[in-house]
Amino acid sequence: MRPNRPVTAILCAAALAMTAAACGPGDGEAGGDAKPTVAANVPPGTDGIKIPDQLKDKLKQHGIDLEKWRGGEWKNWNKDDWLREAGDYINPVIEGLWDPDRMREAAKTPQPPAIDPDAGKDQGVTDPTPAPVAAKPAATPYHSSVPYSGKVFFDGPEGSMVCSATVVKDPAHPGKSNMVWTAGHCVHAGKAGGWYRNIAFVPSYNNAGKPSAQLKGAPRQEVAPYGVWWSDWAQTSDQWIAQGGPTGGAGAPYDFAVLHVAPEKGSGKSLEETVGGALPVEFNAPAVPKVAGMTATGYPAAAPFDGQKAYQCTDKPGRLSLKANDPVMYRIGCTMTGGSSGGGWIAAGSDGKPVLISNTSIGPAKAGWLAGPRLGPEAKGIFDAVSAKFK
Length: 391
Description:
Layout: E1 19-20, E2 37-38, H1 53-61, H2 66-70, E3 89-90, H3 100-106, E4 136-137, H4 142-145, E5 149-156, E6 159-168, E7 179-182, E8 197-203, H5 212-215, H6 220-223, E9 229-236, H7 238-243, E10 257-263, H8 271-275, E11 294-298, E12 311-315, E13 318-320, E14 329-334, E15 344-348, E16 354-359, E17 362-363, E18 368-372, H9 377-389
């Protein structure tokens, strides 16, 4: 449900009414967020790598030396050098950066502070606060129960952070999608910052659902059985970039993002083929009262959770309105905490089959409910743009 006070939405250090849901910095590390650009797959110590001239020019344009970047220059968060515009996204691959221990440590985050439980109450279209629904562990192995779900890892100024995400279908590449759906605050810090760095997706993270103690020193195959997929392009809403913030729900109705990913280690298979499935995205889903129920999946990392296991909540959604002129959000009862941000909300589509209808965006500091954006024309525009970019 949010990252640390860092950038944008996770809720690890809020002060107002609501906070987003990513999860905060690990010990001695840093975090981030963003929109569209290209990534270079340049493993350290590899000779003869061919980098597209277009990418070389783009990196040079932003003063980025790949060797220095891989050597630690990415940790420089000087505000003047922090890329924030929609077209400025760059995410060069640093092979091996997300090793099992770094992934495990990134889940550590403090408990978020309290927020106003009556947020949105005066808008006239907000339903009563739902009763808390206890998050239940997803069935293991995750690849069998939720094969399209996973974790997003990224770095920002305040540390390494985590979110959750979902593999979604790409109409331009039927059966071979490399697209992932998450929250905007998991890629871009919003109004006060820019694109996060080292953004990577790990499907079926900790597939067997082992406790944290058993993951220390675990081989990568156990923690990331289907590989680490780096985001070579990310896109979020203009509204999130302009308005998004770490607390208070600013920009939350537009808090969604689409990633295009590529495997860190070369593979001829797409992400969808690798994990064995992807979900279609439902835009302009029925009005809230007509949706019988939604299931949110995520990797909550703030106490009492530790970010190592997937959980789920199922509830009939109500409405949450933060501003009279903004789209109404979905809201469900759920005790998941920071780290669940970006996780998919799944419901039955018109054909009765599961579709992605929303993603976790915000929730109160004292966990009890989650809210996610209703996906309309802005979300579809982003989705279509990322799909078209990789035709």
